[in-house]
Design goal:
Rossmann fold, 6-stranded parallel β-sheet, two-stranded antiparallel sheet, globular, binds uridine-5'-diphosphate
Length: about 250
């Protein structure tokens, strides 16, 4: 099975994995693994963040699973001849919750503002009545509270930990504390997903998601993200140039 094929988009690694494959990995690792593995999301914005942050680049390269979270990444993978599907981090989190409900895996949810964290846990319990969310903490725990937080996660015996603090904050936390977690086997970085669960930030309507326009919806909803989204244009240009180069190399 089960380790997916890792490929490259521009200078960033990403896995050829779909939703089913990712869920299989989660299951397998919870049953057989002996340490916490990470699932991180790759999208065009991340490519630029990784270029500017050596630590983040290293940490991403060590992740167990790098999901193709952005449609721009999926298109680039397809142009390079891979069978790629988008695995949105927010969708994967929901699917992991559904799987955990069925199989009885314990979940800990760490990150976001107190009311968002609490609200997201309530919503997840409504959606998945048998889900075992065995602990939660907001994303504003101070450094001196970290020992207690780690103890709380260990005492909860959670196998799955979602960390929702945005990037690179969530990865920095994982790099520092994952080794101290005794029962966690899967740790997914989920960025702002808890905000979308409670509805303070909305995801695009399904039709827009299907038309691959979620990025555009996010731009309309949070115009302050425009400077982040400008990078998309740069990305399209870079991918185009990269494609041209490989076509020219192929024609010699
Ligand atoms: N956040 C947090 N602790 C902090 C700073 C931010 O838990 O010290 C949370 C914030 O409340 C929000 C999320 O991190 O829920 C940031 O989401 P963003 O959309 O920026 O993340 P992305 O998905 O873009 O990585």
């Amino acid at each position: 099975m089960i380790t997916p094929k890792r490929t490259q988009v521009l200078d960033t690694q990403v896995d050829c994995i779909n939703m089913t494959g990712a869920l299989k990995y989660v299951d397998h690792h919870i049953l057989t693994g002996n340490k916490a593995d990470t699932i991180l999301a790759v999208n065009p914005e991340k490519i630029y963040a990784l270029r500017q942050n050596r630590f983040l680049k290293d940490f991403f390269s060590k992740a167990a699973i790098l999901i193709p979270d952005g449609i721009g990444i999926v298109f680039a993978m397809r142009m390079n001849g891979h069978k790629a599907e988008r695995v949105a981090g927010a969708d994967l989190m929901q699917q992991i919750c559904a799987q955990a409900e069925k199989k009885g895996y314990r979940i800990f949810i760490y990150g976001a503002k107190e009311e968002v964290n609490r609200g997201a846990v309530e919503r997840l319990r409504e959606r998945h009545p048998a889900i075992q969310i065995v602990g939660r903490a907001n994303g504003y725990v101070k450094e001196e509270g970290m020992g207690a937080l780690v103890a709380q996660i260990n005492e909860s015996k959670a196998e799955i930990l979602f960390v929702a603090m945005g990037s690179p904050r969530q990865e920095e936390w994982m790099a520092k504390y994952l080794d101290q977690l005794e029962t966690v086997r899967i740790c997914q970085g989920i960025g702002g997903t808890l905000d979308t669960i409670v509805g303070t930030v909305k995801r695009a309507p399904l039709l827009m998601q299907r038309l691959n326009l979620e990025w555009f919806y996010r731009l309309l909803q949070q115009p302050t993200r425009a400077s982040r989204q400008i990078k998309l244009l740069r990305y399209v240009r870079e991918i185009g140039i990269d494609r041209l180069r490989s076509l020219m190399a192929g024609s010699h």
